[in-house]
């Protein structure tokens, strides 16, 4: 593999200031600081299980709520993954994973198609896990999929919202790992581009 699959993307608005660095061919090392403990835990799990090295420095208007910071983190992560993938030559393109966590079971299937779409089936019972709003899980993945140009189908069932959210992030990690592995030199599309 001759091309470096690394990227660094920053986004600064009146609400957030976020910089994300990613290495798709890393070893799962992370340094995450968003100011939201549970969200840090989820991004760390994503890094560890995808094998991507990930650095996230994010500050935002948490005195309002976590919405802007989580949304913009999804946007910046999606942009960083898209930049690191380049023309997507040689990638497997498709990835899927089924990950249990205690009583919870998450399933994620993705297509790095250049077309963004999210279908997510997840019911949460609690409004928050720690200081993280469970509503933001779907919004994070919507923001990521849109910015990365990735089609994602996700579902989770279970009783514990911590377990369900973590199972989703881990299944997302494994699906991404499988979809971004280099399998050859071709672009896997009848169109010739992804």
The major pleated sheet works out as: 4 strands, mixed
Could you say which structural class the secondary elements and strand pairing correspond to?
A: alpha+beta
Shape: globular
Cα Rg: 16 Å
- Low-confidence parts lasting 5 or more residues at pLDDT below 50? none
* C-alpha end-to-end distance: 19 Å
- Tally of strands: 10
The H/E string reads: EEEHEHEEEEEHEH
The proportion of residues forming helix, as a percent range, comes to 25-40%
Strand content: 25-35%
Average pLDDT confidence is 96
Q: What is the oligomeric state here?
A: single chain
Number of helices: 4
Strand order of the largest sheet: 1-2-4-3
Keywords: Amino-acid biosynthesis, Cytoplasm, Histidine biosynthesis, Lyase
Subcellular location: Cytoplasm
InterPro entries: IGPD_sf (IPR038494), ImidazoleglycerolP_deHydtase (IPR000807), ImidazoleglycerP_deHydtase_CS (IPR020565), Ribosomal_Su5_D2-typ_SF (IPR020568)
GO molecular function, one term: imidazoleglycerol-phosphate dehydratase activity
Molecular structure report:
With 194 residues, this protein is α+β, with helices and mostly antiparallel strands. The model has no long low-confidence stretch (mean pLDDT 96). Strand 8 and strand 9 form a beta hairpin. It is built from 4 helices and 10 strands, in the order E-E-E-H-E-H-E-E-E-E-E-H-E-H. The chain is globular.
What is the topological layout?
Blueprint: E1 6-12, E2 16-23, E3 30-33, H1 37-50, E4 53-60, H2 67-85, E5 94-101, E6 104-111, E7 117-121, E8 128-129, E9 132-133, H3 135-148, E10 151-157, H4 161-180
